[in-house]
Design a protein that fits this description.
Strand content of chain B: 5-15%
Oligomer: heterodimer
Shape of chain B: globular
CATH topology of chain B: Arc Repressor Mutant, subunit A
Low-confidence stretches of chain A: 34-38
InterPro entries (chain A): DUF2326, P-loop_NTPase
Largest sheet of chain A: 6 strands, antiparallel
Pfam families (chain B): MC6 (PF20293)
Shape of chain A: rod-shaped
Helix content of chain A: 40-55%
Order of helices and strands of chain B: HHHEE
Number of helices of chain B: 3
CATH architecture of chain B: Orthogonal Bundle
Structural class of chain B: mainly alpha
CATH class of chain B: Mainly Alpha
Number of strands of chain A: 14
Pfam family, one (chain A): DUF2326
Distance between the termini of chain A: 30 Å
Structural class of chain A: alpha/beta
Radius of gyration of chain A: 56 Å
Mean pLDDT of chain B: 86
Helix content of chain B: 40-55%
Strand order of the largest sheet of chain A: 2-1-4-5-6-7
Strand order of the largest sheet of chain B: 1-2
Distance between the termini of chain B: 29 Å
InterPro entries (chain B): ABC-3C_MC6
Number of helices of chain A: 14
Low-confidence stretches of chain B: none
Number of domains of chain B: 1
């Protein structure tokens, strides 16, 4: 239980608590409703101070680290694991807490300053007997928040969440711990969710890949991959066998030029052969020229040209022979020349043809460097594609097998949880009964509320519901019943914080009758089960007496708060 | 054979052929040159009557016998009127 809360603030309203029900009453004036400030009377601030002293975060924006509070310390005396402990924290050194514990002889105090982290570990062990650490383990801070709900964090919205953004695993792990279920099961679920999340990332990675294609199934991809690999190998082999011809273009031009020369030579040779045939004919003609014709010419001349003096026959005969000889020489020379030409051209053509076929062989065996680079680029492109396909294929295989595994894992976990819950049925009984009794006392005219723990394929699903009837504020009373149930459960175990703090906001919108009953129930159970129930209330919302006739005033702390005046609130100053 | 007769067509007569040779003989010409010039000329005029090489030589012989041409260093040249 909490004994005392004080501060170095000069006008702080130091609060002394007793066992059982403690009501911190704030007087609300009419004036205040218009100018209601955050720290009007300091009811909600009390919860903040308790969190602050119980290892709560104090980030730079925390009120405890800003003026005017940052120069002051806050202190609380409470029972931790059966020993009275005084804890002090100040805004100047928010990472440290000072702990004072009674010496073993009970005469003095041991004071030490430890880090807030160490303090949280000590609280975890002392309050809840928590020693587990590591991922997804139950934590002191999360567990204690069910006993110190904050309106500002949305702590009154649903019984199972102490802040509105609380993650499923956080709820499952910590409530499993608080209710006495197997904590390892919700932790296993969270590990499973982490794997599923990774798998989602994997799936997204496959989808958002460079190809932007939807990941196919592994069968299709295996086939596509094999095809792409084969094409790549074929291409890679031809690149390996490729001979680079340094002056490929020059060689190509040369071969073309040689081809033209060879054609020109062939044409020349054809006409030469025709000419040679003509020459041969003419030569034969000359050989066969008759020499007898001259005598006939002279004979005819005497008849036909009697009056002409002809040159001497012998002279003309010599002329005749010379002409024929000339012609013969000429033809023979021509024949020799053409024959020579033909021989030369044939040799030249053969030589050119040889060179040309060398060039062709060269060109056939390889290609230009650019061609090789082009091939290499193609190979590189294909390699990238093959790599992408392989990646996608592996992803697809991983996805397909993991999807199955994870489905199986969820089913296994659900089965294990069902078994676990069945085995713990007897142990859970009191928690169920307490919740039902509380709801029954609050709403006698309605169906009873139920605390239900279901084994779902998403882990334990804990619900604390009271069927919605005519009454207002049912949700708040679900929270009330759940919290009282939890603190009762832990008091019976002889552990836990030993206190439950309810801010006045929990009773907002709750029928007055239920509000009075809730206070009475809290007082009864606190006495019967041995825990401390601290409630902050506004005076105008507080019933004068409880259903059993007890005066509410009996439970109200002597130190009253008010939103009237600058020093009426808990802090004794406005800021 | 020199002049056209009953059996010799005018364009085959040696005198006619000799005239044709002379017409082409602008400068010293080889025997083959004169022969080819004659063949060209006759083809040009569409004269189909075949002139064999020995007939051509006889035409040259006639021109030589008449003193119109002579051989000079193996080339046929016209003999000047003087």
């Amino acid at each position: 239980m909490i004994h005392e809360v004080t501060s170095s603030l000069p006008k702080f309203k130091g609060l002394r608590f007793t066992s059982g029900l403690n009501i911190v009453l704030a007087d609300r004036t009419d004036k205040s409703e218009e100018t209601d400030t955050r720290n009007g009377s300091g009811k909600s601030s009390l919860v903040e101070i308790l969190h602050y002293l119980l290892g709560g975060k104090a980030d730079p924006k925390s009120v405890f680290r800003m003026p005017p509070l940052d120069e002051h310390w806050f202190e609380m005396t409470f029972d931790l694991a059966g020993r009275r402990v005084r804890v002090r924290r100040d805004g100047a050194t928010p990472g440290k807490v000072t702990i004072a514990t009674p010496t073993d002889d009970g005469e003095g105090e041991d004071e030490e300053t430890i880090s807030n982290e160490q303090w949280k570990r000590r609280l975890a062990a002392g309050v809840f007997g928590l020693s587990q650490e590591g991922d997804w383990a139950p934590s002191f801070r999360s567990c204690i928040s069910y006993f110190l709900r904050r309106q500002s964090a949305g702590g009154f919205q649903t019984p199972t969440k102490h802040f509105s953004q609380q993650m499923t695993w956080d709820v499952q792990v910590n409530l499993s711990f608080l209710l006495g279920l197997d904590v390892e099961l919700p932790r296993a679920w969270q590990r499973l969710r982490e794997r599923e999340r990774q798998m989602d990332t994997l799936r997204k990675a496959s989808q958002d890949g460079a190809l932007g294609e939807i990941v196919g199934n592994s069968g299709e991809l295996a086939s596509e991959l094999a095809g792409a690999e084969d094409e790549l190998n074929t291409l890679a082999r031809s690149v390996a066998d490729f001979t680079v011809i340094p002056a490929y273009t020059t060689a190509e031009v040369e071969v073309t030029r040689l081809g033209q020369q060879i054609r020109a030579l062939n044409n020349q040779m054809i006409s030469d052969r025709e000419y040679l045939a003509q020459l041969d004919n003419s030569f034969d003609e000359v050989q066969g020229a008759r020499s007898t014709g001259l005598a006939e010419l002279y004979a005819a001349a005497e008849v036909q040209l009697p009056e002409v003096a002809l040159a001497a026959y012998d002279e003309v005969q010599a002329f005749h022979d010379s002409v024929i000889a000339n012609r013969r020489q000429y033809l023979a020379a021509e024949i020799r020349r053409i024959t020579n030409d033909l021989a030369t051209n044939t040799a030249e053509r053969d030589r050119l043809a040889e060179r040309r076929s060398d060039g062709l062989r060269l060109l056939a065996s390889g290609g230009a460097a650019e061609t090789l680079f082009e091939l290499q680029r193609d190979v590189a492109r294909r390699q990238v594609r093959v790599e992408q396909l392989r990646q996608r294929y592996e992803n697809a295989v991983a996805l397909e097998s993991q999807q199955g595994e994870l489905r199986l894992e969820r089913q296994k976990l659900a089965a294990a949880l069902t078994r676990d819950l069945a085995e713990r049925q007897q142990m859970l009984g009191p928690a169920f009964v307490t919740f039902e009794r509380l709801s029954q006392r609050l709403y006698a005219d309605q169906q009873h509320g139920r605390l239900i723990i279901n084994a779902t394929d998403n882990g334990p699903e804990i619900t604390a519901t009271i069927p919605r009837g005519r009454s207002k504020g049912i949700t708040n009373m679900q929270v009330y019943c759940f919290d009282v149930d939890l603190v009762t459960l832990w008091s019976r175990r002889g552990r836990g914080p030993g206190f439950l703090v309810h801010d006045s906001h929990l009773f907002d919108g709750v029928d007055e009758r239920q509000r009075a009953t809730a206070l009475q129930l809290g007082a009864e159970l606190a006495d019967a089960e041995g825990f401390q129930y601290i409630v902050t209330l506004n005076s105008d919302e507080t019933p004068a007496e409880l259903p059993n006739g007890r005066e509410v005033e009996d439970y109200v702390l002597p130190q009253r708060l008010t939103d009237h005046g600058d020093d009426g609130g808990l802090f004794g100053l406005r800021f | 054979m020199i002049t056209p007769t009953k059996g010799v067509r005018p364009e085959r007569s040696l005198l006619y052929i000799g005239g044709q040779v002379l017409s082409d003989l602008d400068g010293p010409t080889t025997v083959s040159g004169a022969w080819e010039a004659l063949a060209r000329r006759r083809r040009l005029h569409g004269q189909e009557a075949t002139v064999t090489f020995d007939w051509f030589v006889l035409a040259l012989d006639l021109l030589r016998a008449l003193g119109t041409i002579r051989l000079q260093d193996g080339l046929i040249v016209k003999v000047g009127k003087s």
